[in-house]
Amino acid sequence: MKFFIDTANLQEIAEANNMGILDGVTTNPSLMAKEGITGKANILQHYINICNIVDGPVSAEVIATDFEGMVREGEELAALHKNIVVKIPMIAEGLKAIKYFSNKGIRTNCTLIFSAGQALVAAKAGATYISPFLGRLDDVSTDGLQLIEQIRLIYDNYAFDTEILAASVRHPMHIINCASIGADVMTGPLSAIKALVKHPLTDIGLQQFLADHAKGNQ
Ligand code: G3P
Fold first, then answer.
1. pLDDT value at position 23?
2. How many CB atoms lie within 10 A of CB 170?
3. Read out DSSP for 93-115?
4. Most buried one in 52, 55, 57, 210, CB count within 10 A?
5. Which of 32, 136, 137, 140 to mutate to test the pocket of ligand 1 (most atoms within 8 A of CB)?
6. Residues 88-146: pLDDT tens digits?
7. Which residues 6+ apart lie within 8 Å of 17 measured at CB?
8. How far apart are alpha carbons 186 and 163 in whole angstroms?
9. Are 106 and 86 in contact (CB under 8 A)?
């Protein structure tokens, strides 16, 4: 399973990258705003900065919601850097844009997926990735993991190339469960990625090993 970090924070991206297990980055307009990145020129430069840290796919989201606008913005984003993946919302106009980019060989990430039907049509349009929002479904008492399982089954039935990018991941168990189901990619916060490393028995065991070594080598 590929690991993407879901943030626009350059320090966090660099920290995750330095862990040696990062495959890519996802951003969205809310995450960009959270970092105080506003204005077109600053936003485009920020994407380039992210691409210069991580050698892997970096999702950059369009703001337009009409086909022509999405094509215009998406082409501009894709031209920024070879790592850019154009992130497009799951709406009817978005599907058309995904098909357009797919025909041109430009990679897309179809975002805001909340149903198996949406995942099916996005794959048919040629999306490179689809992003089902696991945590936001859990937030409204709906099993997000069950949706990912269903999408996995559908994609395997027809050998779709579209990768399932489990998004809105909140904690380490989400990551482990996504890996068990066979999600191709997960994107989550640095805290969830770092939490996978920790185990109290590892810390206690290491402390003991070092103490015993010190005793024997006094
Ligand atoms: O980038 C999209 C998605 O991962 C958002 O996550 O935590 O805002 O639901 P969250």
1. 98
2. 17
3. HHHHHHHHHHHHT--EEEEEE-S
4. 57
5. 136
6. 999 999 999 999 999 999 999 999 999 999 999 999 999 999 999 999 999 999 999 99
7. 53, 54
8. 10
9. yes
Spell out, as residue ranges, where the chain has pLDDT lower than 50.
none
Task: Look at residue 218 in the predicted model and tell me its pLDDT.
Answer: 84
H or E element in which residue 8 lies: none
Partnered with residue 108 across adjacent β-strands are 86
Token digits for 141?
Answer: 């008492």
Rounded distance, CA 146 to CA 177, Å?
Answer: 10
Active-site annotation holds for 87: yes
pTM of the model: 0.96
**Cβ-Cβ contacts under 8 Å for 11 (sequence gap 6 or more):** none
Distance CA 182, CA 176 (A): 10
Q: Tell me the one-letter amino acid at 29.
A: P
Question: Which of these, 103, 41, 54, lies nearest to 81 by C-alpha position?
Answer: 54
The distance of Cα 120 from the centroid of its chain, to the nearest Å, equals 19
Atom of ligand 1 nearest to the CA of 167: 4
122, amino acid identity? A
